[in-house]
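To: structure desk
From: M.T.
Subject: fold request, one chain
Message: Could you run this one when you get a chance? Sequence is below, nothing fancy, just the single chain.
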Amino acid sequence: MRWAIAAAEHRSLRRAAEALRVRESTLSRRLRDLEYRLGAELFERSANGTRLTAAGDEFIAVAKRILAEADAVFSRMRARGRGESGDLVVGLCMALSVGNLRATLAAYAEQHQAVAVHGIDGARSRLLADLTTGNIDVFLTAAGHVPWNGALLPLWSEQVMVALPANHALCESPVIGWPDLADARVLVNRRDPGPDFETMLRTRLGSGCGCVFIGHDVCLDRFLGFVAAGLGLTLVSESAAGTSDRGIVYRELHDDEGPVRIRFAAYWKETNRNPALRPFLDLLRERYSDTAPSLSSE
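Reply: Done. Structure tokens follow.
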């Protein structure tokens, strides 16, 4: 079809053959073969050159559309193969209002505008199952307590904040220590990193601390709504502290060494063949080059 289009555009087999870098006799023979297969004459040949017949006009118009669509498909497939287009599904268990995750996703979207990024929130067990089955490409969550045998990349750490109802007595303190939380009514979100915060509290305060733990399984903004309503306090990462401030006061949590921090990591399967995943991981490594290299969580 490309040779027929060239002959039509140049209106001369000689000039078309020169443009295609083939012998004129070869081009003429190929066009004759094409006309034979179609059962229609496409060109009127004369000493002055070639001219399309009515059938030729129709064929060339269709051929151009077909080749344009084919070229577009090949271009998209090559871009997809290089990770420049397609879809990336990210499991999320942290806030997006501010912080490193938001900045990373923004940078990735700017660099890979043809890639559609899809976010999935939920409980850790569900997202790990989705990661195992390939329903998500990468899972970003708190590090250290994830039962995962695949690849992981340590990322940033964030300061742990205490989210308090605005009328809570601890709001008067500029910073809060672990002992201040003894006997507190603590709201625990079953979605990450809620279980990690609960583990922190139970480990630091001990089994006899007197805290009352009340479980929830809701998205972050709804979860913080329970805090604002005065149902209890909770621990959040510093990025989550920008999610809501109506009726909530945030205070830094300190221990003997200073501010308490929680670390995050990226988890994925080495067998994942989605080309869009590799540039995302490369961006994480580039932005957090001071962290350890990719390794197994075993």
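Reply (cont.): The chain is about 40% helix and 25% strand. Let me know if you need anything else for the meeting.
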